[in-house]
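Q: How would the structure tokens look for this protein?
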Amino acid sequence: MRIKSKKTKKQELFESIGFLIILVFVFIAVYLIFNRVGSNDEQVVKREIAQQDDGEEIKKPEPYICLDCKRRSIDGVHVKAGKENLFPVAVMIENHVDSRPQSGLAKANLVFEAEAEGGITRFMAVFADGEKVKEIGPVRSARAYYVDWAREFSPLYVHCGGSPEALVKIIKDKILDFNEFYKGSYFWRDKKRYAPHNVYTSSELLDKYLGSKDLSEGKFESWGFKDDLPLERRPASSTIEIEFRTKDFFVEWVYDKDMNDYVRYMAGKQHVDKDGEEIRAKNIAISYIKSQAYDNYGRLDMDNIGSGQAVICLDGKCEEGIWEKKTATSRMKFFDKEKEEIKFNAGTTWIEVVRPKYKVVY
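A: Here is the predicted structure in token form.
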């Protein structure tokens, strides 16, 4: 018979310490296992919820909230503080049939479209978001009423020549002028197109000039902006048709419910930039403005200071109202029938300037 030897106190102490160490390791292992399983279960539940398509309520992730964001002055888009009021540039872009497709229109924050002469419309595209635009154009000449619209923003006004009245107004009103005739190094001529439909510039070149003049912050009054109408309250479809003088310049805006914006068509085809990017707008503001030719070239005198009838379209719906531009330097604003100022959706706005006799269907 074997007799067990008695353990010393020292041995008992070591065994106790060892047992405690093992117990601690077991506790940590159990904690990690359950914590990981819980995390995996949570991910599985989230995936299952996201995959539901049987009409039940789907749990959506909380939207990202930018605590230090502000609405950008030019278009109401939320941006980081310090980026909300960049110095604007307003570029005259032509719309002659031979100038199509244009470059840069799809990236503009605000666009004015009005007739120049001969029923041909022209654009003034305003850029003030800091986005890089590799090519903008074809750049074309200034007109006096466009100078008035440009003055709303105190921008760098970019053009290639202009009517005598426009050039005089630019000097008289001390416009920050950027005429290709005198600033040729900031433009180029596309050899694949013939003059005068081949003058281009870029945001890089324009920013280079603004930087040399230490121009970084804009000085203009902002419109009021709001959040988009919820999806369930938007109409299924709608269209806006604007019949300018000839069919080559007929415009149609087709509403996209999911995106809550409008896709532009011109002359019966979708209007896209030269790089294929679609031209879309969150808001369409139609201004009825009287105009008449005053010389043998068919140049127009436009009653663009004052007020008149308007149609404002956003969220898939159009409502009648009025436009108002009190002075050459004040912003063109839009009001409903109760004279409440319109709040636009954040994003690109197109202002369509039409003669009262032109047909508009919406």
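Helices lie at 9-50, 144-151, 164-172, 203-212.

Residues 9-50 form the longest helix (42 residues).

Upvote if useful.
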